[in-house]
Amino acid sequence: MSITLQGFRRTADSGTSQRTAIEETRTDKIFLIGVKIMLWIALILVALPLVYIVANSFSSPSAVSAGQVLLWPVEPSIRAYQEAFSDPLIMKGYLNSFIYAIGGTLISVTLTIAIAYPLSRRTFFGRNVIMSVLIFTMLFSGGLIPTYLVVQDLGMLNTRWAMVIPSAIGVWQVIIARTFFRSTIPEELYEAATIDGASDLRFLWSIVLPLSKPVIAVIALMYAIFQWNSYFDALIYLKDPSLYPLQIVLRNVLILNQFGGTGSQNLAQQLEQQQLANVLKYALIVISSLPVLIIYPFVARHFTKGVMVGAVKG
Amino acid sequence: MSATFEVKPAPAAPAPPAGPTVRKPPRTSRRTQAGRSLRRHWQLYLLVVVPLAYFVIFKYVPITNAVIAFKNYSPIKGPWGSDWVGFRNFELFFQNPVFWTLVKNTLLLSVYTVLASFPIPIILAIALNEIRNGRFKKIVQLVTYAPYFISTVVVVSMTILVLSPRLGFVNDAIGLFGVPAVDFLGRPDYFRHIYVWSDVWQTTGYSAVIYLAALSGIDPALHESARIDGASRLQRIRHVDLPGIMPTAVIILVLGVGNIMSIGFEKAFLLQNPLNTAQSEIIATYVYKTGLLNADFSMATAIGLFNSVINLFLLLGVNFAAKRITGNGLWS
């Protein structure tokens, strides 16, 4: 096909493939403009709330309470951030979230590889049965209470383990890792390693894992972000506030409005407290999303790959 | 896509064990094959033990625990020792006046979510696919993708803040047109719209990635020949792109419909307030309240089981229909 089109190819756009010299018709040009306008609208609709939150978080409490802020900070101030970072409850939540995210990710990635790798090997007997056993759990579950009973029986209630163990392995991540192993590690490589005397574990450790850094990064990021954002497990399994992850603290402050404000204040103080609470909400949203936002540009690229690996026929 | 959901009955013919040693002819029974594989690859089987134990303990034991839906659960006697009550919990639930409200709220919310969040990512992906210059496309993708990484708690609180009658910009905006401020979250009839559109806001960019992958898999020759035949952009989208992403779209739709009863608990729960429960109380939030707040474990399990079973049947039914109509299903 490309040969027939070669002669038509416009010289100017050497870089862009697929654009051939068959003239864009007028309707096509209009259509393309329509598409661009649509994408601009989508861009603005998604970005607007984000910009609004950030702008508010950097404004003065009184400006926020008066509803003056739209897209740019009014009377710029970092008062809310100072307040947030000096609040022991919020900082404790932050620390807990880091513990759960890092610990949980280590456990999850290890277990996921431990099951995904054997399932990718053709010589592993019963891999289809095991895969069905895994996938069935995506379709049907015992439900909230029966799971809660298991966690209770294991004595995990109100411990840090409850945050990382019951949600340790995601079937989707197993599928992604298995697909990757199967499509990138050739069987010949294994045969060669066996001749050199490598055992299965040795092969996994010295050859498969170093070759699989991209997929390990993808599933690690998926687990880490899942852990960082998870809130429901904490809600049902944890009672002790010193174990709470950031998301629970956030919910208490942001949605249930439980912040500061002791009863013995005069009216002016109460008003100031209320104004501060308003702007603090915006700052908290930014602070809690910060770690994710920092790694986001890096994450997005790999995530895209991961989604595609999972979506491609394996 | 489809092959990622291989639940085919195991085609019992793993390749003969690779290796330099003597190759036995492949016509051995499954049992001896298994034995040989186990002896040779015991390390692989060892690796699987802990993850499999995880699935047994945290996924399959709960399924057996669900027996308490048919019992009067007593914490002392345990799930298996408690007394049987048959279908009493189910009957009580069906007779409960709240039953129909719950089913209606859950179904409406789910159907609405599926209907809204199915076509929009496809439109976004096709639009992005039409733009061939780099930067603008990248920016749009990066920005629309971003909300997916924000936690549910934060998305919900953003929604609340943005829609707030006193602080939010939505009320400022409609105020410009002379519309008085509305307490969106205090009105039950707005709940579904808020739920669904904040969901669309959060997930569209992410879902579009899957369709972009499918679009990039379409043979460029198809587009080129369509162009030579004089097809406009719109015609190429209709006759090349859409058929090309059809299989992916069917899978996503089937999964979406299959999840129809298990609509996100977290978000509904977080968006809920005493004023909007008339439409925001769904089966999942009710299970949480019955089970963990009122400690009625048996009843909550029965309701949860009812939900899961309906969900499973919906998934199987839709998958069957999709396979009949389009030839694509989860297990193709």
UniProtKB/TrEMBL annotation, chain A:
PROSITE patterns: ABC_TM1 (PS50928)
Compartments where found: Cell membrane
GO biological process, one term: transmembrane transport
Sequence ranges assigned to domain ABC transmembrane type-1 in this UniProt record: 94-295
Main location: membrane
Family according to the record: Belongs to the binding-protein-dependent transport system permease family.
Entry protein name: Putative aldouronate transport system permease protein
Species whose genome carries this gene: Kribbella shirazensis
Automatic annotation (TrEMBL), chain B:
Transmembrane segments: 44-63, 107-128, 140-163, 205-222, 242-265, 297-322
UniProt family annotation: Belongs to the binding-protein-dependent transport system permease family.
Region (Disordered): 1-35
Location within or outside the cell: Cell membrane
Presence of the UniProt keyword Membrane in the record: yes
Keywords in alphabetical order: Cell membrane, Membrane, Transmembrane, Transmembrane helix, Transport
Annotated protein name in UniProt: Putative aldouronate transport system permease protein
Topology in membrane: Multi-pass membrane protein
